[in-house]
């Protein structure tokens, strides 16, 4: 399955959101018990750090707190690097997004905030799941835009530090259920390669899976519907255009298609190897009498 975002509050008793003394996995402090929303069956909530670490480890389904550092929310960006976690400035699924309030590592001027990236939309916005020490609810989701100041929708008293990437999420692999700009690019590449007529919607559904499996067979790869780095490389290689070439229009059985090629003296020239991915060349007739080439299958 693809990445499964958490868009609803954890269920009661979920061990990733309960301390060890309460039968859970969490190494975080108890949530804000003074709030009416406090739930002893999710005892690290409400609290942004308790939630974020719980979700970060839940994504990996480790059955323990494999990753953890002490500290307030604003301290995580630096402290996570000391335990080998990768950080960066661009959002990735499952990553923690960290803001400081005042000076990091100085709790007297604020503790900062941390949330988890659950969805990355095609327009660049993200949807986060989160909790908060002073919140009157255990959990919420929020759509966030980076904005002109790059603060990802947080109050101006907070400063964006970066994302802490989750090792359990491999964004180089695409499969049924995934969504986002990488799936959209895959659909474009598949249409160029095999003329599958996929809707470019960024959603890896049954149609995209069927096209992936067909392409895998033609590329001599394992037919499993999962797009790994090897398939992405093979697909890019198959679609690679020679220097100076662009996508040229041809007609196949009366329908306009495109292949890499060049326009020379008003004529479309395409590479025969590209046709070979679509047809058995012995079984087609290539009409060279028109300036828009036409392929008729027998």
As for the number of domains, it is 3
Shape: elongated
Major sheet summary line? 6 strands, antiparallel
Calculate the terminal CA-CA distance, rounded to whole Å.
40 Å
Instruction: Name the assembly state.
Output: single chain
The low-confidence parts are: none
- Residues in helices, as a percent range: 10-25%
Please tell me about this protein's structure.
This protein has 298 residues and is of the alpha+beta class. It folds into three domains: 150 residues, endopeptidase domain like (from Nostoc punctiforme) (endopeptidase fold (from Nostoc punctiforme)), CATH 3.90.1720; 59 residues, Orthogonal Bundle (Muramoyl-pentapeptide Carboxypeptidase, domain 1); 52 residues, no CATH class. Helix content is 22%, strand content 20%. It has six helices and eleven strands. Helix 3 crosses helix 4 and helix 3 crosses helix 5. The protein is elongated and about 80 Å long.
Write the layout of secondary structure elements.
Layout: H1 48-60, H2 76-82, E1 87-88, E2 96-100, E3 113-120, E4 126-130, E5 140-144, E6 159-164, H3 181-194, H4 206-218, H5 229-239, E7 246-252, E8 255-264, E9 267-270, H6 272-278, E10 284-287, E11 294-297
Parallel strand pairs: 7-11
Antiparallel strand pairs: 1-6, 2-3, 2-6, 3-4, 4-5, 7-8, 8-9, 10-11
């Amino acid at each position: 399955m693809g990445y499964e975002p958490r868009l609803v509050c954890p269920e009661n008793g979920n061990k990733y959101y309960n301390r060890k003394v309460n039968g859970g996995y969490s190494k975080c402090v108890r949530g804000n018990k003074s709030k009416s929303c406090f739930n002893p069956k999710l005892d690290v909530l409400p609290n942004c750090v308790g939630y974020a670490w719980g979700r970060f480890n839940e994504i990996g389904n480790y059955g323990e707190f494999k990753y953890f550092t002490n500290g307030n929310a604003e301290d995580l960006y630096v402290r996570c690097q000391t335990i080998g976690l990768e950080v960066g400035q661009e959002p990735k699924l499952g990553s923690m997004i960290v803001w400081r309030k005042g000076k990091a590592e100085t709790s007297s001027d604020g503790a900062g905030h941390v949330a988890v990236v659950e969805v990355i939309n095609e327009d660049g916005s993200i949807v986060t799941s989160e909790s908060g020490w002073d919140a009157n609810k255990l959990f919420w989701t929020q759509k966030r835009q980076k904005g002109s100041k790059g603060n990802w929708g947080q109050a101006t008293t907070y400063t964006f530090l970066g994302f802490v990437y989750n090792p359990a999420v491999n964004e180089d692999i695409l499969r049924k259920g995934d969504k986002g700009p990488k799936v959209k690019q895959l659909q474009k590449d598949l249409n160029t390669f095999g003329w599958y007529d996929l809707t470019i919607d960024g959603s890896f559904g049954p149609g995209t899976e069927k096209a992936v499996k067909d392409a895998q067979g033609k590329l001599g790869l394992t037919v499993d519907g999962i797009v790994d780095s090897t398939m992405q490389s093979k697909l890019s290689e198959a679609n690679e255009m020679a220097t100076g070439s662009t996508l040229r229009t041809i007609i196949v059985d009366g329908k306009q298609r495109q292949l890499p090629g060049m326009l020379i003296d008003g004529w479309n020239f395409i590479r025969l190897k590209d046709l070979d991915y679509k047809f058995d060349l012995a079984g087609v007739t290539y009409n060279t009498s028109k300036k828009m080439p036409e392929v008729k299958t027998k």
